[in-house]
């Protein structure tokens, strides 16, 4: 919901009385399970969001559970109310407010995808349609000729936004929707797994921003290849920004990341066994590169097959967690879960001083490879100097000894990570289970040759089936 529309829900706060937000979250979750058999894990943050007015109209089962726990007859007595019914959506709407609008008829509009730190924002053509449920796993949307024509334009990304009878919103990638309609006429399916929530919003946000940025500078990145080849033979390289065409921030990060990945692979022979990979991603925007950039997925496959015992260290101070919206924290959690999917044990430090240390790989020697917050495109060294080696060894010892994720199993570490990031672990596992059956490409399908959904689909299947996956089966799930 946009800040300008938010109104604190004083009635809900008054009804809660002396009960804590944590207790209310537990009671409501239990009431939902008793009524529906569905496992929902509301958190104290969820209650806070309702009381602060971020969400005005929960699902029907959630509203009923609130009424039961707080002993009221109607959800309106708790300050919940339907968003204003409009015949058409506003001409332009923020992606993160998508679930707050009620749509009365088929119509079109624009979704504004928020910017980020390097992300510059994007725009998606949205085609809204009422939908009827068919069976237990899908909605049916009857496309019009106008809708299909609008989604067939090659110059813009588009989404179908299907709205069910309870005003829940579901999305489908426009291009894939058109492709299906071309193969089979009549109503088209939209999976119920594509419901709009922090998971789907995060996927769309990252994919649309990265896709737009890399498509915009694709030719410049191709011309930068000659400079990369020239620098690959050097043991020390500081990628000079003025040696390549002018690039937008995401394209520049992609180029730096691509060079650093190759640099580490070229210097595997120096590392020995059991290396620690130190990375600088602290927010979901940066970490989404692991989920979407094709070369990073291949890099993970390559490194995990080379080393049997690996760790990857992250530093995520509490200030970064508090500053990030939940959909971005979901992406960060998924990126770190992808490491575990490849058999790479994650290490988490919250010490702010660790965040200032550049990216490196440490075993008997240290290879420096840094592209995030680098003064140039990249900063690499085949072998760190003795003073820097000492810094890396000290940091590695402190991070491993003080990791916030000291559980013995991947599922234990990821559950602890979810708690630290304030992402309901039970909810995420349930949602990944739903999406594992359909895949994410029907939510956000990248067009850039440099992007892929392999990382996203791999980690979603991994989180969904983490209890049964073992060993080499992990990253092949």
UniProtKB/TrEMBL annotation:
Protein name, UniProt field: XRE family transcriptional regulator
Organism: Kribbella yunnanensis
